[in-house]
Amino acid sequence: MGKLLVKEKEIVVPGDVIAEGMDYLPSFGTYRAGEMIIANRIGLLLLEGKVVKTIPVEGRYIPKRNDTIIGKVFDILMSGWRLDINSAYSAVLPLQEASFKFIQRGADLSKFFALEDYVVAKIINVTSQNLVDVTMKGPGLRKLDGGRIIKINSHKVPRVIGKQGSMVSVIKDATGCRITVGQNGVVWIQGEPEQEVLTVKAIEMIEEKSHHTGLTDEIKNFLDKNKVKVKGEKQ
Prior knowledge:
Blueprint: E1 3-4, E2 11-12, E3 17-20, E4 25-26, E5 30-33, E6 36-39, E7 43-48, E8 51-55, E9 68-76, E10 80-84, E11 90-94, E12 118-126, E13 132-135, E14 142-144, E15 148-151, H1 157-161, H2 166-175, E16 178-181, E17 186-190, H3 193-208, H4 215-234
Parallel strand pairs: 4-8, 11-13
Antiparallel strand pairs: 1-3, 2-7, 3-6, 5-6, 7-8, 9-10, 9-12, 10-11, 12-13, 12-14, 15-17, 16-17
Helix pairs in contact: 2-4, 3-4
């Protein structure tokens, strides 16, 4: 009998034996060696029936219930909108979970959210088949107008936000920008153009140096130095 040695959605690394026996079939990120299926890259284990595969985890966001994310509309359905959420999976915003009080059946849904629109939404359900449902009913959930979008490694999001939002507050105070950080590694920034650029540089610096101690002070110093330069350039 075939036997799965790793649970679904666990992280595997090259050389890990995922399954034994001939019941399972290797797919992306795995290969067969005799009776065993072995991982050949770091990834998240997924099962599709008897097919075993991995998806890369570096920077890829794994949807979790109650996460607040930023998604981009890439398809308009009869019953809602499909969002790119910077993940191997897309999400659906059903009509009844949109923030509008009432949408008539058959209405032109692009009048509410058009293709390429970005929205802040909350994940309300992730099924075992990785179907993701989101809602826009709740504080802070909204369509994003203007500003710029950047993407960071979703594993670095807690560092960018900081304890109780401390790090993101430092950047907001220094630049005057509005900033929304999605748990999925998508960040929205809106402010004066040169301050947006400074904010992007600060966030990239946090992502790059996330393992450093004393990073908050490092970012404060960076912003203080560069804030003066930005003001000087405008004179």
